[in-house]
Structure formats: structure tokens, C-alpha cells
Specification:
This protein is of the alpha+beta class. The protein is built from 5 helices and 3 strands; from the N terminus they run αααβββαα.
């Protein structure tokens, strides 16, 4: 079910009391066109630079994506918890050792605004090495479609 709290409460009262349900905030997902276009650019850049698409993707996340910082006990295996990260440092507090990390938000979790920033940066990178990209008008049209999709999802 998707709707406002006022719309959902009457519906929820009619659900089976013996079952468990999960309620979470609805978040607009960006268009698949945005994701597809981003990965086309990543693949073209990777081919041009003779690098893996994973390497280029990480570079784009680091340069144009969202990041946050965490501090965890040094023996915590972060690779099993976080996909995109790099160690930032080591700290000691009392007799405990901690590692600090920059953690990068996966593109699959980005909202329309965040993905738009990632694509803009990736377009600039592609153009800087001579890769053909969408024209500014085509890109503006694609972004306008994301905005329309976002507004339609809110209704």
C-alpha cells in the first residue's frame, strides 16, 4: 500500500491482526533511464581508460556522489557491511583501536537529485576524454522527465 497516513490508517485497520506488516516511508526511485545512461557512460570511460567499470564507478562515486564518515572498532570487517568505502585513518581511544572510513552511497540508493549530480559529473568526465554524450538539450529533457516522474509518484 502506498498513500498518506490518513489514507492508510483505515486500510490498515482492515488487515489481518495475526500477521506482521512492515511500514516504511515511500521514497521516489529515479528512472531506469537515469541509471542506464550513467552505466553507459561508466562503461565508455572504462573502455577509453582501459580500466574496469567497477574502478570508474568508484571514482565517480568518490568525486560526485554522497559520502559519510564512520568510525568502527579496528577488528570490524567492514567489507562485509559496506560496498563502497576507503579507509581514512586509525584512531586510538583509551586502549581500543578504531579505523575511520569514508563511505560512499551506492548509486542504487540515490534519489533523483543525487543521481543527477552523479550523472552531471560523469558527463563532464566523459567529455573531457572525448566521449560523446547527450547534448545539453537531451540531458535537460531526461532530467525534466525525472522531475515529472517524481511529481506523478507523489500524487
Amino acid at each position: 500500500m502506498v498513500g498518506t497516513i490518513k489514507e492508510l490508517i483505515p486500510k490498515m485497520l482492515q488487515l489481518d491482526e495475526t500477521k506482521e506488516y512492515e511500514v516504511k516511508e515511500y521514497k521516489h526511485k529515479r528512472s531506469l533511464n537515469a541509471n542506464a545512461y550513467y552505466w553507459v557512460l561508466v562503461n565508455k570511460i572504462a573502455d577509453a581508460l582501459n580500466q574496469s567499470k567497477e574502478f570508474v564507478h568508484m571514482c565517480m562515486l568518490k568525486q560526485y556522489g554522497q559520502r559519510y564518515w564512520i568510525c568502527v572498532p579496528a577488528d570490524t570487517p567492514v567489507e562485509s557491511l559496506i560496498k563502497y568505502y576507503e579507509q581514512d585513518g586509525v584512531r586510538k581511544q583509551g586502549d581500543r583501536l578504531f579505523k575511520t572510513y569514508n563511505v560512499y552511497k551506492p548509486s542504487s540508493e540515490m534519489n533523483t537529485y543525487e543521481m543527477s549530480k552523479l550523472i552531471d559529473g560523469t558527463v563532464e568526465e566523459a567529455q573531457s576524454i572525448g566521449i560523446e554524450t547527450m547534448t545539453p538539450d537531451e540531458l535537460a529533457h531526461l532530467k525534466a522527465m525525472w522531475g515529472v516522474e517524481h511529481e506523478n509518484k507523489k500524487k
